[in-house]
Every structure is written in C-alpha cells, then in structure tokens.
Design goal:
This protein is mainly α. The protein is built from three helices and no strands. The mean pLDDT is about 90.
C-alpha cells in the first residue's frame, strides 16, 4: 500500500514537472499552428504535439534512471501529456477570448 502511494506521489510530481518544463517550448509552435488550423483539429494537434515532446522527455528520464519501469514510464507519458495538453488548450482559450 505504501509503495503504491509513493509511486502515485512520484508520478504526480514528475508528471507535473515535465508538463511545466515543456509548456513554454511547446507554446510557440502550438500557437502558430493553431492560428491556421480549423478549431476542431486544434485539440488533436495539441495532443499529438504534446505527446511527442513528453515521450522524448520520458525516454531521457528512463535512460538516466534504470529503476523506472515500463509501467511507470507509460503512466508518466499519459499523465504528463494530459497535463501539458490541458495547459496549452487553456492558454489558447485565453488567447482566442482576448482576440
């Protein structure tokens, strides 16, 4: 039980850290691309772009720390992608509202 709780806390902390670290890097590209895409395709683009960047980041983490299992790495990719996508879509919504 404690191991599962610790794993969950590590997952939350690291996923949030990854999403924050990649947000600014991803923002410029997403902002430029979102201005030319139809509204219904923006979410898909943001998700795929975020997943690509997050996957690279998690791969680097796994190479540096062999204790990270495949299961944890997969959960980290999914959670970080969700957080990053949410942050980017919120920023896009604010930008569109201001325009």
């Amino acid at each position: 039980m404690i191991t599962d709780f610790r794993l969950w806390m590590v997952l939350r902390r690291d996923a949030s850290r990854i999403a924050r670290a990649l947000e600014d890097q991803c923002w410029a590209e997403v902002r430029a691309k979102a201005s030319v895409l139809p509204a219904r395709e923006v979410k898909e683009y943001v998700q795929s772009h975020a997943a690509n960047l997050v996957h690279r980041q998690v791969d680097e983490l796994v190479r540096r720390d062999v204790r990270i299992t495949g299961l944890l790495a997969n959960k980290l990719v999914v959670r970080s992608t969700f957080l990053l996508t949410d942050r980017l879509l919120r920023r896009l919504a604010v930008l569109r509202k201001a325009a």
